[in-house]
Amino acid sequence: MGMKLLVLHGPNLNLLGVREGTSGGRLSDLDAALNERAEELGLELKVVQSNHEGVLLDTLAAEREAVDGILINPAGLFASYPLKEALEAVGLPAIEVLLKPPARESVVGEACVLQVHGTHGGFEPYLQALETFASGVFTPEPAGPKKSRSASKPAPAKSLGRGKEEPSAPTLSLVKSSPAKSLARAAEAGGSTKTLGRKAAASKEAAPEARSGKTLGRGSRSLTPAADLLTRAVVRRKISDRLSGKMTPAELAAWARTQWQAVQRGAPAESGHRELLEESLQGLTLSTLPASRLSDEQLVDMLTRLDE
After folding, report:
1. What residues in the chain have per-residue pLDDT under 50?
2. Which pTM value belongs to this model?
């Protein structure tokens, strides 16, 4: 099997579809659809539903070493800071799924790499989340000895604007959150991390070195060769190549993923624009997935942001 995922259903999802009194839309139907799609994609699922926040927290802690990613529908607990903190502490790539947008901004979603929100019911947000995990975007490149699970934990990302979706299509967005402590261990272990997620230089001790290595014009010790520096101009050029047909969408996504992983390992980036570059690389890495595909118009918008 491929990745093993923990699926958490929040409060009252045990009553999904019960009020409507129709078959095909209940939690048991959702779980059946999830397991069927997971088998097709080569994924393994552990599914837990609870009406109690503490049970969800305990499950996250107990399963953190046994799974590779998390799919969570917090339902009414979308404003739960304990759940947010638990996801950050566990440090695995997590996707928040809601069958409809929350009444307020989701706190739990701030600790997730992606959010997929439905608009008109149905299980499509869940299935798209599975496809995102199965795409391999959270899987490390096969280089060097295999890392343990605890040495390859991810982190959330920043948000990117999306164009208008079809009415029945789920809404997906990238989100921002603070780094988890487990990512500091991943940075020390070196090599490819498991996801697009958290910044490798998570510890305060590592921050001064990262800053000195990515700036220009501060003396011979801090000078970084231009060829090794990731800049807005470099990313703009790649996007322009994609728009002009010199690169395919898949080639641009693969390049962006390589650059993201290099930045996660501490590679230098243009001073004052590191977060913007990280955000852009995340969006480009996911740009070939059905739920987060970028149109030419959105790529032009990204060019504009990189030129500001």
Report:
1. 142-168, 174-225
2. 0.59
